[in-house]
Amino acid sequence: MPEALKDTVTEPGMGEPIDAPAAEPVDGKVGKPRSLWSDAWHDLRRNPLFVVSGLLIVFLLTMAVFPGWFTSADPRYADLANHYLQKPNWGNFFAPDWFGYDIQGRSIYARIVYGARASITVALVVTLLVTVLGTLVGMLAGYFGGWIDSLLSRVTDIFFGVPFILGAMVVLTSFEDRHVWVVILALAFLGWTSIARVARGSVLTIKQADYVMAAKALGASTTRILLRHIMPNAIAPVIVVATIALGGYISAEATLSFLGIGLAEPTVSWGVDISSGQEQLRNAAFVLIIPSVMVSITVLAFIMLGDAVRNALDPKLR
């Protein structure tokens, strides 16, 4: 045996085993390979799109939860005598007159701050409801197949064929008192179809995997297979769709309120302010433009976040 091999190879059963190569370093450290979620988080932290949109969303959520931190003005206090359509004072930051006053003499800045709560609450709760309902329908249809898949798919197609805004208008016009929860339920009633289709497609692929077949062979219950094996692996595309759709629900609430069939006074929301400001577009455009800009910024932030999450979770886009 050559001398160079005598230092690393020994006779079978004698001495130390053959040396194995060290694990490949990950970010300069030797460790286990990252999972899909840890790998996605690793990419997200280095994505400027995610950082910017994340910081903006955190700011908006903080404003919605703690509006008193941003202004002490009452968004419903009206002073027609002194503040009727008073123009913005752009140099007076965070003051009641920063964005001017509306047709009723109310502080637009205060209404922007307090209006974030209703608009974002509607979007978040609707997204949560449609994600739960759509994922449940999609998982049942994709896993069981047969007549269950046919029935749930046809129901999904029926709801999918109804135009979203038009369907929400029809539902909301049947209610006299259109408060926040009525708008939430109306939007959730019609908005779950896209997530159901995405979840069904993911489950159809995953249920053929070896680990699912092994779980069935070992006698695992259907509930355990769905919750422990299929859902964790099928949820990634659902999260992407839900994140992007969240911004759409904010614009949907503003659109319905603008048309006069969504939220209404005395609820403070950006959509209500856009609706009330349309009559003053020619002589006081800022009353309409400022809440519209806030809606656009918020929708853009959630869409940017959804794009960043999609890029991190989809291996094809790496």
Your description of this structure?
The protein contains 13 helices and two strands, in the order H-E-E-H-H-H-H-H-H-H-H-H-H-H-H. It has helices at 3-6, 36-44, 48-65, 80-83, 108-144, 146-160, 164-172, 180-190, 193-206, 210-217, 222-258, 270-277, 286-313; strands spanning 25-26, 29-30. It is an all-alpha fold. Strands 1-2 form a two-stranded antiparallel ribbon. It is elongated and about 80 Å long.
**Unreliable sequence segments:** 1-24
Mean pLDDT figure: 80
Radius of gyration: 27 Å
- Quaternary state of this entry equals single chain
DSSP helix count?
A: 13
| Structural class computed from helices and strand pairing | mainly alpha
Strand fraction equals under 5%
Primary descriptors:
318 residues; mainly alpha; 2 strands; 1% strand; elongated; disordered N terminus
Question: What order do the helices and strands come in, and which of them pair?
Answer:
Blueprint: H1 3-6, E1 25-26, E2 29-30, H2 36-44, H3 48-65, H4 80-83, H5 108-144, H6 146-160, H7 164-172, H8 180-190, H9 193-206, H10 210-217, H11 222-258, H12 270-277, H13 286-313
Antiparallel strand pairs: 1-2
Helix pairs in contact: 2-13, 3-5, 3-13, 5-6, 5-8, 5-9, 5-11, 6-9, 7-8, 9-11, 10-11, 11-12, 11-13, 12-13
Sum this structure up briefly.
This protein has 318 residues and is mostly helical. Helices cover 64% and strands 1% of the residues.
